[in-house]
Each structure stands twice: as structure tokens, then as C-alpha cells.
Amino acid sequence: MQYSQNEIISSEELALSLDTYLDKVLTGEVEKIAIVHNDAMSSVMLSVAEYERMTQAASLLKDNPALSKLFQEQEDITAAAENQSSPLKLLYSGVDIRIDEEEKAIIINQAGERFYNSGCDDLQTIFRDASLSVDANGNLQIQGVQTIYNRHVNSGFDYEELLCKHPEQLIKKRSFLGLFSYYSVDGSMTREIKSLYFCEYKNYQITQRCEVLSAVVEDAREKKFKS
Question: 217 pLDDT exceeds 70?
Fold first, then answer.
């Protein structure tokens, strides 16, 4: 059986957010939840309706030898395909991750803890509510929510041409001294995107910030004026 990344969680994460994952299964947001314990999938969470459907299907297969043989052959084919793929090992989940490909560094924060010294262009390197996994070949991948920021500045007479490049909400009709009309674009757009990111390298310096013990904020301008 195959599992998507959002169907795999650790037993620790399940214990902390049991109601959330129960709702996902019961509402059909996910078909199943595979629970990882001691670095291996140990059990699967299903809705009662899905469990009964599978039980009935198994009963029908048991009573029909020809159908059972066909199903077994299909399972053998699926198992062979899964064995050829690289299984993922979950390293971290439910955290915020920032990756620096140039420095080959990965910083892991507690969920909700801000990464400072990050400009708008750095937002694409930050993944929130994320997981970090590694496959059998040592390739790392990150799955989480990215915030994409784009600055839009432009002007022109052709509305459709501008619409191809910029959000409709940022295109404003202007008039120059009442003589002629044109369109201008000046603003920014942010989007939250659920992403799966494949890291470029295999070896990274991984730093996990487990807890913030203290923080000091000083205003250098005020210190200068006081002195």
C-alpha cells in the first residue's frame, strides 16, 4: 500500500494532535493515517466506514477463488513496485524549517518561532508546519507551507497584457490630465503554498533549536541619545 506524505505521522505527533487527525480521517480529507513508531510504520488509522468496506471486500475475495487470485497477483505487482522505490524515513515533523543551499545548512525551529534576519526574498527558503525526511539513498526532502512574496511594478495601455503578468487586484486605471487613460501596477502579492522541496545535497549542517531560553532587544538609537 502506498502512502502520501500527508498520510504519515509520528506516534508523538499523533499523541499531541489526536483530535486533528481523527477529523481528517472522518471528514475524508485523508483516506488513512500511517503511524510511525521507532522509525517504522507500526499501524494505520481508518474510519469505521472504510474498515467495514475493506472487511466486506476481504470476505468477497475469500468466497471467490478466481477473484482472490487476481487480487493477489495485483498485490504482488504493487509490492514489487514499492520495493523498487526508496522508502522515506521521517526525521522531523510539525516544525518550522529554513534551508540555506549555499551554506549547506538546515535550521529547525519550534513551530511558530520566527526566523529573524530574513528578507522577502528569503521567504521561499522557509517551510512552516513542515517535515524533514530522508530516503534510502540519503536524499533529503522537506514538505511544508511556503509564503511566496512578489513585488509588482509596471504600467501600460494594454490591460490584457498587464493581466498576464500581474494580479488583477493590483491593476489600476489612471488618467493623465484627463487627456488619456492608462493602467499602472504598484503593490505586492503574498501566497501560501503547500510545497514538497527536494534538497540539492545529501550532507547538511542541521541545527535544531529546541527551546528559546531568553531574548534581549536593544534600540541602538535610544542608547546613543541617552549617552
Answer: yes
